[in-house]
Amino acid sequence: MATTTSKLEKYFEAYEDVRAQGLEREPVWLQQLREDGWARFSAKGFPSTHDEDWRFTNLAALAKTPFLRAAKGEFAVLPAQLEAYRVAGAACQLVFINGHFAPELSDLGNLPEGLLVCSLAKAIDCGREGCAPEGIEQHLGRYADMSRDVFTALNTALWEDGAYLRVHRGVVLDKPIHLLYVSAGTGAEISTHPRTLIIAEDASQAAIIEDYVSLGSEAAFSNAVTELAAGQDAVISHFLIERENLASFNVSTLRIEQSRGANVDSHSILLGGGLVRNNVHPVLNGEGAECLINGLFVGEGRQHMDNYMLVEHARPHCNSRQFYNGILADHARGVFHGRIVVHKDAQKTDAKQTNRNLLLSDSARIDTKPQLEIYADDVKCTHGATIGQIDEAQLFYLRARGIAEADARNLLLYAFAAECLDRMKDAAAREFAGGLIGERLKELASAVQAATLAATQEDGAQNWEELG
Amino acid sequence: MALLEIQDLHASVDGHEILKGVNLTINAGEVHSIMGPNGSGKSTLAAVLARRDAYQVTSGRVLFNGKDLLEMAPEVAACEGVFLAFQYPVEIPGIGNAYFLRSAMNAVRKYHGQEELDAMDFLPLYKERMKLLEMDEKFMNRSVNEGFSGGEKKRNEILQLSMLEPKLAILDETDSGLDIDALRIVAQGVNAMRSPDRSFLVITHYQRLLDYIATDFVHVLVDGKIERSGGPELALELEEKGYGQIEADAQQALPA
Predict the structure, then answer these.
(1) Is B170 helix (H, G, I), strand (E, B) or coil?
(2) Three-class DSSP category at A373
């Protein structure tokens, strides 16, 4: 056991509350699911760095903080406080405060025909009353793997709400759906476990933005799990935006199940949070399925950003592409763990993985680790990683045309980040992400300019180190 | 008044002295060519003038328009009117060609207290200059030099030159690697820029370029020093006889 029971006490109290609540309202299968989740979590506790999947990420600070569960409505949030967090051009916005749906803060607008968007807890309540949105039982908890990952187990035991989305067969949405998960402590350290379920039926098309923000400066722990089931030929873009305060812990798990011909893009934009773990786990479970796993992480100060990708090819003729770019300044640390598993029958797999990193200071650090497990014999798998600094030749070229050094550095940082924007197909989401990235890089560039200047004067040489 | 005055310039890279006392004066409107064997310091001279900091100036003085050029950062030199057409223009993925050039023009305009150009002012001029250099408009939105052929990169340099309108344009082996058609287009772009208040420093290996760009003076750089200067006829002589005699003379002139 990696963590002592006393440290898990607050989670046990939360579990007792959630379970008691569920006894009245929740179907038996869900109560069972929670019980299994709690059993897994309490047996294993938080992982240590001896666990290969957590080698580069130390959870001691997370484990020792006594995070509390926030009851519904405990922290009042005014609509004005959320003004800054809207997405221009979104079809609708669902707001969750400390894991509880806040209908009064949400904007469900004019929802297009063929789209169901509501609170997951509400959808399950409806089930009790016989007006059930179908398919929850069939999907919820069926993909995210509790036995592998204790955070998924903890989420399964403790989740209270999240978004439930169902896009009906053949329905094409032209505007993104915005899910805003807000941590709002007023003095207390809160943990939340948002659970999102997205069911995209055959040949449907949609873009979903999951956005994590904090109001206030308290440490919060968000442990989110999203299950996305993409039906045959569905085309889905998922965006994860992490922009919580620097005291926050954010662990998110996106588990994607893809049917035949389904095409799913996952875009992760990690800008905030103190300790961030971003798990993306697509399973290509139908012939001809394709996925793009695209990400950008930007860290400064002592931010720690850990990206754990697990791409499973379970059927033949599937393509996967992973592109992650990292920018790290000060003492920030990044991790990229890219695992590709090609199962025995997944012939003609085409899998590619690229991780590029820009380190803006001597004390920034990246650990990048590709891991290929191939059990089929007719596959194409490639991986590559680079670590480097701002290219001095490019910097000089810009300056030699009259662009001031600070602006030139900013341009180059933005260009590096923009590679990831170019891969986003949904225009409104891309513009939104681009705006956030631009702002973040501006802050970063001005913050590190002095430090970088000193460093480059010391050592003008720049080296790109090719790794495997 | 001289636009550029180089006095006894010494410069080194990683402790190796490359320029060993260069003297050169360029007046407004003049075209000067520098020729010389590989490794004689031609590109180093260009880089020092463009203020690349990998090159250390150990002694000497350079005045540009009466101001101390060696005190200027690269962006300041550029804003003051020094332009280097790179021998090997770098690729910058992620930054659009048009966006980059407009940013550069606006940086220069800002330096001179002029108003910034918006896209509406910029684009017609940009397109017109592209046409002059026979460049396809598709280059506008592509990343700077990314995936360009050698000739396309050189044309892109001359395009920037024509938009930025510097006082001194330094062409660092702009002709190398160009076929005769590309060379003609590049030379045409340069010739269109000639004016009584713009000077050129043309660095080249070959007399061929000077068939297209009429030069006023030719200088021969050997082992970090200008060993001979003359009119355009010097280029023809070098083409015929090579640098052998000048190099030998330079050797002999060394104190025993």
Answers:
(1) strand
(2) strand
For residue A227, the enclosing domain spans 5-286
Which whole-number Å values give the CA distances from A436 to A423, B21, B245, in the listed order? Answer: 16, 52, 64
* Cβ pair A318, A347 in contact under 8 A: no
- Reading the block at residue A311, the tokens are 């791409």
Would you place residue B69 in the very low, low, confident or very high pLDDT band (cuts 50, 70, 90)?
very high
Return the closest-CA partner of residue A226 out of A170, A182, A266: A266
Handedness of CA A20, A25, A28, A33 (dihedral sign): negative
Asked if residue A423 belongs to a domain, the reply is no
Query: How many residues belong to chain A?
Result: 468
- Tell me the two tokens of residue A6: 């006393």
In a domain, A159, yes or no: yes
Tokens of B192: 């269109």
Band (A448; pLDDT cuts 50, 70, 90): low
What is the domain count for chain B? Answer: 1
Planar angle of CA A109, A112, A118, nearest 5 degrees: 65
The pLDDT, as a whole number, for residue A8 is 83
Residue B161 is part of a domain; what is its CATH number? 3.40.50.300
**Beta strand A100-101 pairing with A205-215:** unpaired
Q: Closest to A403 (Cβ–Cβ): which among B51, B75, B84?
A: B75
- Domain range holding B65? 2-253
Three-class SS state of B132: helix
- Do B75 and A394 count as a contact with CB atoms less than 8 A apart? no
**What residues in B contact A438, CB-CB < 8 Å?**
none
Residue A332 resides in a domain? no
- Which ipTM was obtained for this model? 0.96
Say yes or no: A396 contacts chain B, CB-CB below 8 A: yes
Name the residue among B50, B103, B111 with its Cβ closest to that of A400.
Answer: B50
Q: Do residues A308 and A279 lie in contact, with contact meaning Cβ atoms separated by under 8 Å?
A: yes
Residues near A68 by Cβ (< 8 Å), separated by ≥ 6?
A: A10, A14, A188, A189, A190, A191
Pairing outcome for strands B56-64 and B225-230: unpaired
Q: CA neighbours within 13 Å on the CB side: how many for B241?
A: 12
Tell me what the mean pLDDT of segment A152-163 comes to.
Answer: 97
* Total domains in the fold of chain A: 1
